[in-house]
Each structure stands twice: as structure tokens, then as C-alpha cells.
Amino acid sequence: MPIRAKSQSLALAKSSKRRPPAALRAQQPADALALSVFMQMKRAAAVVDHDGRLLLSNSVFDELFGAEGGNAMLARINGEAGRNAGKTSRQERFPNGRTFEIETFPVDQGWLIAAGDVTDHLAGQARAAEAARTDGITGLGNRLMFREQLTRLLHNPDSAAATVALLVVDLDRFKALNASLGRKVGDALLGLVGKRIRSAVAAGDTVARLEADKFGIIQVGQPQPQSADALAIRLVDLIGRAYLCDGQLINVAGSIGVVLPSPGAQDCDHLLKNADLALGRAKKDGHGSYRFFEAEMDERMQARRHLEIDLRRALALREFVLVYQPQVNLRTNTVTGFEALLRWQCPTRGAVSPLDFIPLAEETGVIIPIGEWVLRTACREAAKWSPAHIVAVNVSAVQFGNPNLVSTIISALAESGLDPRRLELEITESVMLDARGTAHAVLQVLRTMGVRVALDDFGTGYSSLGYLRSFPFDKIKIDQSFVRGTSNDPVGAAIVRAIAELGQSLGMATVAEGVETADQLARVASDGCTEVQGYYFSRPMAPDQIESYLSTRNRTNLL
Amino acid sequence: MHSQLYRLVYFSKNRIVGGPAAITVEIDSILRSSQRNNTRMDITGALIFNTGIFAQVLEGPRDSVEATFEKIQQDVRHSDVQVLAFDATDQRAFARWSMGYFGRSRESQDLFGHIAAATGFTTAGLEGARIFEIIRDIAFEEEGRAA
């Protein structure tokens, strides 16, 4: 209810309205102008003396505060102004529900008071703050709201950490669904998922959509971990139930990562990161799984991160070396060439197995500069050898995805002066699996330059015979798993024989890898392999050992 | 607002826990809330249940069927919902919504046999009879398996 001026209140104000007291009466035109502005301004304005008496007020002031409420306000303001020598400003909520911003300025006669109704402005601000924290698609909170809520909780000494759980939910294959059903249905589905999550949590819990198809839940005031466990089970079930949306039947599954804040945990981002790690593990477990975060997950990620850091600088610090393993032609008993193999001697880790760092290098793309170094180094080294020997270099699918591969090879050959026919690229079928088919075109270009191409690890993976038809490989390398077991493994022997025959029919050389014993050598020879590679002939050797290896071998053969 | 007529057929596992008294309370609650909501949502159909499963036909405007199904999915009294059909249709096969017990248990028959009569359990026309037969068969078949 608006406060209306009462005739009997503020007698002074009433008289002053008609005629300002002498002290304030206009002496100069400028004063007259100021007075006129004062009287007509839209803000409520008044002048009170040091004793709190009202000397002058404009009509807006009288309209708003010309009642008991006004007196009470004046008393309060005087008290406060007396303590504060300078300008003051504060917000005051009045019994009629309106909020005013009240400013006081010291003037010669006492205080100038100006007040404006900020109720609508504040409500607008509150609405904007609410909107900035609301997800438009689901009506739930958004990431900002979620992080604020979580931070508040973690910093509140009253909230027992032992009763809090953080869950992140991610829909499996949502991107594909969104693409096939359309954005509108995708959004509607997110809305339904949000409602289902809301229906499964307690009233005091927080639910927000964090990004795309990822939701976050803060469970509070429940015994842990059993409550988070029960909620995760319920959510996996609930989210995985069929949806009817836009006239369609839709099935999705949700994966969940759960983290329980350790006592004293205050870092919201750290918690969210751990929840994501648990979520990642749940997704690996398959559709509709949930996992609790374990410190070991973090340790593994940290270990990976440190390995990546070391790996990234290993090249600059010249920690890589190439070693070379000979390949021997069984018919002529001569060395045809060497496979270049990458070794990493890390000062802190010691020798790191390629099995440990190559996958990470491929995943992070570090394989591109490392692979380039391998190509250039191997070409440079091989250029020093007898022209009879080729050098085989492994090139990964990731390198084939790099548009610069061909120019890198051309440049490596040109710099070293190596005959392109003496460079052999060993590729696995993963290179042939690329969806765009660019690898095939790259191989054709390299082939016209004279570069040789070998298919590595044949017999494992899909080993599609289609690859053999799609590209005329120079060589098929038979995976060592079939070679090693040949002494008491008739199936392995049969496979080696079949591949060797296939190679012969297609005019491709066949190399048996991993030959370690004379027995294995005899078998792969009788199975029809044209070349062998393995410890039986030599371990991989440093480049400076190649010359003596070859001369020793020649001497021995001559005897 | 989509008012195209749709028909949904599903069945699910009965997860009501407790003895006959608890079950009676829950079945009664399902019956009353369904009658109330379905009238309001312009939904017709039939709900068949026994101690093992629920099987239900819901017909009505698409939005009503979708909203009702969403509510059903969030109900903890059942699980493993299998949707058998969700299609647009020209006309209703059920003139009203009704509920009935179809199972082998004598005890349950005594407890819930009256519900069919009370809800005027009925089918309309050949299509209604055919669908009813399907869900009744499912109910009998799944009763032992789910329990």
C-alpha cells in the first residue's frame, strides 16, 4: 500500500513547500535554478537540519514519505548521517514492500536526502541473475549455478562433507541421436532426461545441465557412499528407460561418474575433474554403467600426463635413437635390409618401451614430429650403407592423416640422397582403415616415386584380404605370434603357410617376424616365407655396429 | 499441441513389494490416480496386471500419451518397460480406460477380481479384442517368469 502524505504530519514540510525558509531562499539566479530543479526532480529529495528537522522537501518526497514512515526514516538517516561525516548511500525496504535507495549528502544547513525507488530495478537484476543461472532447454540450473552451489557447499563449515556426493551423468550416443532426430527432438529429450533426474533426487539436491548432454547432481544430507550408490543405480535404470518424444520411441543410456568429496576438499574444479575421470571409466565399461572415482584413476591420468610432458621434450633433448634389425633373404642367405626401430632412453625413466609411449604419442599427435625425425634419420643412415640394403621405416595411421607426409618423405630422401627404391614404409592395416581413403592416394603417390610399401603385422586385426587387392604391396610381414608357436602349433604353421602362398601368388615377398630358433627358421622356410627377421639372426643394433655385423656375417658365410 | 490419436502398448515387471495388504494399497492407488488422470488427459485403454507384470494399452492425443508414459516411466512400482507399439491410429479400440487382474493366483483373484467389474473392464470392436488378447496372453506368459 503506498504511503500517502497526511495533512497533519510534517507541518514544517507543508509550510516549506509553499515558501522555503530564509536560509534557503534563492539569492541569485543560479540558486533559483537549483531550487527549481530540486523541487521538480523525479527523485524524492529533502533537506534536513542537524537536529533532524525537515527544512525543505520536493513533492515526490512528500508523496512517498509524508507519513509516519517518513519520520521514522528521517530519524534513522539522521542517526546514521551523524556518524558518517561524508556521503552515505543505502537501500531500505519499506513496509509497503518497495525498496528505496537513499543517499545523504552533507550540506551547510544539514543534510540533503535523495531517494529513488529501486524495487523494479532490483527485481530485474534478480531475474537476470536467475536467467544467467538457468538452462533454457531443461529449465534446470546451468554450469554457473552448479559451480556456485558446489563452491558454497564446500566452503560452508556446517555442511558435513561426509554427506555430500557429486554425480555427473552423460548420455551415450546423444550426438548421433541429435543428428538423426533433429535438434528440436534432441532438446525435448534433454528436457525429459532432466525431469527424470529431478524426479529421482531429493528436494534439497541440486541438478543442473553442465554442457551438451551432461548433467550434474549434488546430493546432500545423506549417508555416503550408499546413498550415491543407490541414486546412481536408480538413475542408470531411469534414464535408460524408453522415451516417447515427438511421436517417436527413443532409447538412450546414461553413464555416471560419482565422486565423494574428501574432508576439507574445497576445490570445485578438482572435484568436477575427478567426477569426469570416473565418468570416463564408466563409459569405457559400456552403456549404462556408473563408477565411483578412485584416487588410482587420477594417479594413472597424472602418470600419463607426465609421460606426455617427457615425451614432448624427448625429441628436443635428443633422447631418441634408432636401432636396426636385419632382414635376411632365405634363398640367397643375404641381408636385404634393416628395419629401423625407435628407442627412447629417458634420463629419469630409463629405457621406455615403445609399447608404452607409441600409443600415447599417436593419441597426442606427438608422433608427427617424432615420425618425421625417424624418417629423416633412417634415410640419412641408410644412405651410408651399401646400395644393396634397404631401410624399412614404420609409419603410423596418424602420420598418414597429416597432409605433409609426402613432402616430408620427399625432403628426407632429397636431403639424404637416398634412392627412393631403398626406402620401405611399413604400415599396419589401421592405415588402410581410414574412412576418407586419403591414405590410399598417398600410397599411390609414394609408389610412383619408387618408395616400397610393406603391410606389417599381417594375420592380426581384421587382416582383410581386400587390402591386398586394393594396393600392390611389395611385402607382407607375418606377425610373430604365428611364427613363434610353429614348433607345436599346427594352426599357426598353417596360417604362415597360407600367407606365404598368398604372397607368392600375388608376387609379394613374405617376411616371417620374430624368428628366434633354428627350428622356427626351418619351419618358416619350408612354409615358403621368402625372408625372415628376428633374434636368430640378430637383435636390433646401433648404426655403428652395422658395418662390422655385415663383414662378420660375410666372413662366416664364406667359411 | 499434438492431438493426433496415438496408441501405445507396453508391458513391464511388477515391482510392488510386500504382502497382499501392501499390494492392495498400491493397486488401489494406481487405479484411482489412473482414473483421475486418464479422464483429464482424454486417454482410454486397458491395464492388465498380475503379481508378475503390468501390460497396458493407452490411446489418446499424442501429447497426452507421451506425458502419461513419461509419468509411468518414473514410477518405481514397475521396471523393465518394454514398448511393443507406439503408432498413430485413426480410431480408438477402447471406449474407456479400465483395469483388470489377469493371473492364475486364486488369492489374487479374490483380492483383485472386483476391479475389472468396477472399472467396467471392456474392449470395443475387433481391434480392441485383438489387442486385448495380445496383452492378456503376455500377462499370463510373463506372470511366472517375472515373479
Automatic annotation (TrEMBL), chain B:
Residues 5-100 form the BLUF domain. GO terms for molecular function: blue light photoreceptor activity; FAD binding. Pfam families: BLUF. InterPro entries: Acylphosphatase-like_dom_sf, BLUF_domain. It comes from the Bacteria. Gene3D superfamilies: 3.30.70.100. This is BLUF domain-containing protein.
